[in-house]
Amino acid sequence: MRRCFRPLLRGHDRLWLGEDLIEVSKRYGLAGELKIYADPFPPSKRSYPLVLEEAISKLKEHELSPYLEELTHVASKVDAKLYLVGGALRDILIGGCVYRELDLLLEGDLERFLESAKKCKFSLKELTPFLTLKLVKDGKVFDIALGRKEIYERAGALPKVFPAKLYEDLQRRDFTINAMALGLSEGIKGLLFDPFYGLDDIKRGILRLIKPYAFIEDPTRIIRGIRLKVRFSLNFEDRTLDLMKKAIDKGALLWVGWVRIWKELEELFKEDEYLNGIVLMEDLGCWQSIGVKLSKLDMEVLDRLKGEKFLSQENRKEFLLFTIFGSEAHKHPRDWGLRFQLPKRLREDLSLAPLWRELKSLSFENRYRKFLRASQNLVKFWSICLEEDLFSLWKAYREARPILSQEEMENIASLKGKEYGRIKIEVLRLQLEEGLRSKDDILERLRKESV
Ligand code: ATP
Ligand code: MG
Questions:
Q1: Ligand 1 binding pocket includes 87 (Cβ within 6 Å)
Q2: Tell me, what's the pLDDT at 53?
């Protein structure tokens, strides 16, 4: 048997091991040897099994580890297999980074797995048409996906999904570093399934697409790629970069619904190095391709935002939205707010956001009206843009009440042949801007002025 395997392995720096091959290799005690052979570098330089052991022991440190063991057991009872995949595995292999959620993949019969899970007190919380499910036990949630392949009927559309084997599932993913699987079930525990050489790319610091048409199929991968690049300081492989530029130039980002674009941007904005991502999107022509122009002034505001150390993540996200999309949203308020399906308050703020540039030169009436429409959040943004605290002014505008009664103002209005509203604004201006405090002073000024 060993002799059968050797020619297969020779000349390959990494060999894809199908499930059957794994079974056979296990039966003949070759799993260890295969692990070594699967390494692209001589074992003396890189200790492949050690990496994997390390991965498993890192996983053991995870608070959900006991549940993971249980789930693996649940799967094995119905001859299904469980793998750690996607971002969680990537993060463990990159090392030094905290992995957030555990991405798990199930290979086997879903219904039987669910029955078995139920017996172990895991309850099904969600099952999507995309073959992903959420199991809950003791208040802990587990995201599990059934191995699946995808068919895109048109570029940028959401795919149709079908159950599939592990290899096909890994093949549908975006970048090589996201397309690995670590066996968790007995028999495959600790084995790395890495058909696209993701581990090598991690070591070389490279972000590489699995398939050349991936950006066309799903253009949100452009923003995902930029996000991963800045998060882990990776370099795009030349061909991947070329494909990305081509897709952007073709206007691929416009093929995807705006809501999906916004979702990806929200994720990018969460990154510590989000500014590098925004600049890279500018350099690659992403913003221009979706009809957004970043001016020099916008770039200055982005720098200023980066300098604000105590912004909450929510504030940061909204302020980046204001900076990048504000000018366009101001010109077309309805279109932009609705495109991203933002809540009403945010839509209003977005269309008012770029006004900080002219706030100082506006007439009192105009400024007053704008301040009344602005939320506290927007005022915070304006303050950062202008490097001046506008909060007390905003508060004063909102709380100000005319010192004259309505009747007094109506009288003046009719005497002067003006609208009541004009007189009221002027009274407020005299109070707020000129600091007049007594009725008499204000009445005298109004008499003299040609409002
Ligand atoms: P993060 O650490 O930010 O969660 P992630 O890579 O885990 O990064 P997820 O959105 O959680 O991102 O996706 C989990 C996995 O699903 C990815 O690692 C990748 O393999 C796959 N994936 C997600 N989105 C896509 C996509 N648009 N195209 C192809 N594969 C995708
Ligand atoms: Mg993830």
A1: yes
A2: 77
Parallel, antiparallel or unpaired: strands 148-151 and 123-127: unpaired
Fold category of 50-204 in CATH: Beta Polymerase; domain 2 (3.30.460)
Domain chopping of the chain, boundaries? 5-37, 50-204, 229-386, 400-448
Query: Is the shortest distance between the CB of 227 and ligand 1 below 6 Å?
Result: no
Positions in the chain whose pLDDT score sits under 70:
1-51, 96-98, 450-451
242: tokens are 């070329």
Q: Which residue has the tokens 């302020």?
A: 319
Query: What is the SS3 assignment for 75?
Result: helix
**Number of residues written out for the chain:** 451
Classified as helix, coil or strand, 145 is strand
* CA 178 to centroid of ligand 1, rounded, Å: 7
86 lines ligand 1 (CB under 6 A): yes
Contacts of 117 (CB under 8 A, 6+ apart): 71, 74, 124, 135
Say yes or no: CB of residue 220 within 6 Å of ligand 1: yes
Q: Which ligand is nearest to the CA of 105?
A: 1
103 ligand 1 Cβ < 6 A? yes
pLDDT in tens, 120-175: 999 999 999 888 999 999 999 999 999 998 888 888 888 888 888 899 999 999 99
Cα distances from 148 to residues 113, 128, 129, 145, 363, in angstroms, run 16, 13, 11, 8, 61
- Note the helical H segments in 312-419: 313-331, 333-339, 344-352, 364-373, 376-386, 391-399, 406-416
pLDDT value at residue 181: 94
For domain 229-386, is the CATH number 1.10.3090.10?
yes
Spatial separation of the C-alpha atoms in residues 275 and 288, rounded to whole Å:
17
Ligand 1 atom nearest 103 alpha carbon: 14
Query: What pLDDT is stored for residue 155 in this prediction?
Result: 82
CA gap 229, 227 in Å, rounded: 5
Q: Are strands 81-85 and 104-107 parallel, antiparallel or unpaired?
A: antiparallel
Which residue in 182, 173, 267 sits closest to 226, CA to CA?
267
